[in-house]
C-alpha cells in the first residue's frame, strides 16, 4: 500500500514555502501500471503551481524529459517539491549531483521531499 502524505505535512510545507516562492513539482513512475495520481495529488495539495512528470521512465535511464523541464523552469527562490528522494535521483551520486546543481543555480534550500 503506498504511503499517503498527511494533510498536516502538506500544510506545514505550504507555510514553509509561502515566502514568495513558486513550488515546482516533479513526479515519476517507472512502469505504466504504477499510479502517478498519488504523487501528483500530494504535490497539488502541497501548493505546486507547476508539475512535471515522467511516466514509464526507469530511474536508471539518464533521459528524464520531465525532470529536465522542471530543472529548466526553476528560478531563484523557487522550490522543487518531490514525492520521495528516490523519484528524483537514479542513484546516490545522481541525487547529490542534482542537489549540487540546485544549490549552485538557486539557493541552499531548493527542494522539499513530501515523504
Short key terms for the protein model shown above:
about 120 residues, alpha/beta, Rossmann fold, about 15% strand, globular
CATH architecture: 3-Layer(aba) Sandwich
CATH fold field value: Rossmann fold
Described by strand count, sense and barrel closure, the largest sheet is:
4 strands, parallel
The CATH superfamily name is Resolvase, N-terminal catalytic domain
Order of helices and strands: HEHEHEHHE
Alpha-carbon distance between the termini?
14 Å
Radius of gyration: 13 Å
**Residue ranges: pLDDT <50 for 5 or more in a row?**
1-6
Give the C-level CATH assignment: Alpha Beta
Can you tell me about this structure?
There is one protein chain. The chain is of the alpha/beta class and 115 residues long. Helices cover 40% and strands 17% of the residues. The chain has a four-stranded parallel β-sheet with strand order 2-1-3-4, sandwiched between helices. It starts with 6 loop residues before the first helix and ends with a strand.
Outline the secondary-structure elements.
Layout: H1 7-16, E1 23-29, H2 37-45, E2 50-55, H3 65-73, E3 79-82, H4 85-88, H5 92-105, E4 111-113
Q: How would you sum up this structure in a few lines?
A:
This protein is of the alpha/beta class.
Amino acid at each position: 500500500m503506498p504511503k499517503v502524505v498527511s494533510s498536516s505535512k502538506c500544510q506545514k510545507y505550504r507555510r514553509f514555502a509561502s515566502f514568495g516562492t513558486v513550488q515546482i513539482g516533479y513526479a515519476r513512475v517507472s512502469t505504466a501500471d504504477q499510479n502517478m495520481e498519488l504523487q501528483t495529488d500530494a504535490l497539488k495539495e502541497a501548493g505546486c503551481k507547476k508539475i512535471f512528470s515522467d511516466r514509464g521512465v526507469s530511474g536508471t535511464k539518464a533521459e528524464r524529459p520531465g525532470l529536465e523541464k522542471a530543472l529548466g523552469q526553476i528560478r531563484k527562490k523557487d522550490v522543487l517539491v518531490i514525492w520521495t528522494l528516490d523519484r528524483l535521483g537514479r542513484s546516490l551520486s545522481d541525487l547529490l549531483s542534482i542537489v549540487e546543481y540546485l544549490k549552485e543555480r538557486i539557493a541552499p534550500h531548493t527542494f522539499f521531499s513530501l515523504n
